[in-house]
Specification:
The chain is built from 13 helices and ten strands. With 352 residues, it is an alpha+beta fold. The chain has two domains: 87 residues, 2-Layer Sandwich (Phosphorylase Kinase, domain 1); 215 residues, Transferase(Phosphotransferase), domain 1 (Orthogonal Bundle), CATH 1.10.510. Strand 4 and strand 5 form a beta hairpin. Helix 1 packs antiparallel against helix 5. GO terms for molecular function: ATP binding; protein kinase activity.
Length: 352
């Protein structure tokens, strides 16, 4: 099996590709996510694996019609060396980061990502229009998955270009594009039961995760500690009551989703290498203090960014409007994911 290795928090995680060779799922392609064993990792790795498994269990049990924009967990197991393995259905191994990089190169070279059409050689607006449609479709999948999570009492808390799986890079295949959210290790339980009781709910599946361990308490404490940073930020923002904490958590995810949206649009539609995620975030947060109108005026001066600006300008600035709402400094003023989905920029109405 081929694999990739990447860091989540302070833990090195490996992701393998494979296929079932027998049983009822014979032939099904899978992604296997391996957390290090106790001897190679820490209590944090076990806590992250348990939290990710628990999150998927809750989301998959929450509705008879499971959201297609959440990666589908098929199961999990522990090896003799203590490694925790999670098994997901493989609907695509590419990420939003992969697409943005490919699209940025295509924007630089004035071409399409994937297959060209003959008229593209004569009219560059055609591949750019398909790029815009592709981006909107990807964003709708991201916010659809996020809306499902929030509606079922879970925050993501790890949204980024690599946490969005897609099944194609080709812009001509936009109608088959399937974005899926993954990387739930830092997900936070904001169900009413959890928010008001202030401790883990003790559902059967959560107990099964911890059964048989001599240090259950340490793992449970480590799992709860994964949300410490979020609740510190909530206190700093004045969110003290249970409902305020819940609202802050949702708004915190929306803020991260706004930064992700900006990344996808700018990196995909700007000259390759002229912008990246951290520099864009610094520009918005530090240089312009989340005043996106002022940021727009600055961006206009750089010809390398013109296609991104033109995209956000559609519909009398509809893109800037929704982006500014998500990045509002006051968490109370940020929209929920469902409201973002219904915004005229996100419905694609501004494209035609």
């Amino acid at each position: 099996m081929s694999f990739q290795e990447f860091g989540e928090g302070g833990v090195q995680v490996r992701v393998y590709t494979g296929r079932f060779i027998r049983g009822p799922r014979s032939g099904t392609r899978v992604l296997l996510k391996a957390y290090p064993g106790r001897n190679a990792g820490s209590v944090e790795a076990d806590a992250m694996a348990a939290n990710e498994l628990a999150t998927h269990a809750v989301l998959q049990e929450a509705s008879k019609e499971f959201c297609p924009h959440i990666a589908l967990l098929l199961g999990g197991f522990q090896t003799l060396t203590g490694e925790q393995w999670l098994v997901f259905q493989d609907r695509g191994q590419l990420t939003a980061a992969d697409y943005a990089k490919a699209a940025g190169l295509a924007t630089t070279d004035r071409r399409a990502v994937g297959n060209w059409e003959f008229l593209d050689y004569l009219d560059y607006s055609r591949p750019i229009q398909r790029r815009r449609i592709f981006i909107i479709k990807m964003l709708r999948g991201i916010f659809g998955g996020l809306s499902y999570m929030h509606s079922n009492g879970r925050l993501h808390q790890s949204l980024g270009p690599s946490s969005v799986l897609i099944n194609t890079l080709s812009e001509s295949d936009v109608y088959s594009l399937l974005p899926q959210l993954r990387d739930m290790a830092f997900s936070v339980d904001i169900s009413d039961e959890e928010i008001f009781r202030g401790h883990r709910s003790g559902l059967a599946w959560r107990q099964q995760i911890l059964d048989g361990r001599s240090d259950d308490v340490s793992i449970g404490s480590a799992t709860a500690a994964l949300a410490d940073g979020l609740w510190r930020r909530a206190r700093s923002a004045g969110a003290l009551t249970p409902l305020e904490r819940k609202a802050f958590g949702i708004a915190d995810d929306i803020y991260a989703a706004g930064l992700l949206m900006a990344y996808i649009i700018f990196v995909s539609l700007c000259k390759s290498g002229s912008v990246d995620g951290p520099s864009l975030q610094r520009l918005f947060e530090s240089t312009f203090q989340l005043d996106l109108q002022a940021a727009r005026e600055y961006c206009l001066a750089d010809d390398n960014w013109i296609e991104a600006i033109k995209f956000l300008d559609l519909g009398d600035g509809a893109g800037w409007e929704v982006l500014q709402a998500m990045l509002n400094p006051d968490y109370r003023q940020r929209p929920i994911a469902e409201a973002v989905l219904n915004h005229r920029f996100m419905t694609g109405a501004v494209l035609f």
